[in-house]
Design brief:
two-stranded antiparallel ribbon; about 120 residues; metal ion binding; Pept_M16_N
Amino acid sequence: MAAAAARVVLSSAARRRLWGFSESLLIRGAAGRSLYFGENRLRSTQAATQVVLNVPETRVTCLESGLRVASEDSGLSTCTVGLWIDAGSRYENEKNNGTAHFLEHMAFKAKEIPVRSGT
């Protein structure tokens, strides 16, 4: 981690002199294939860290009707809407037991019925 922090301070020329070997280090794997370890791994780690740090804060507000609205401002000019309802076997009672399972099969496992001609 200290080396990664030092990379930010050093100029690119100094970086090539000190850590140039890491940018082109090839190692033979057990299968005889060349494995590359270097800058790309560091870049992907930094990118993943940046994504985690840039997750917008989620605000949850409750409307008068009891509807809860979760919103995030990503700073982009796009909008995404998701809907979650309290449904499923967790919310079933004796009168509607099995309804969630039936609806799941209807929504995700139903097959298209072939159209028969001439009958």
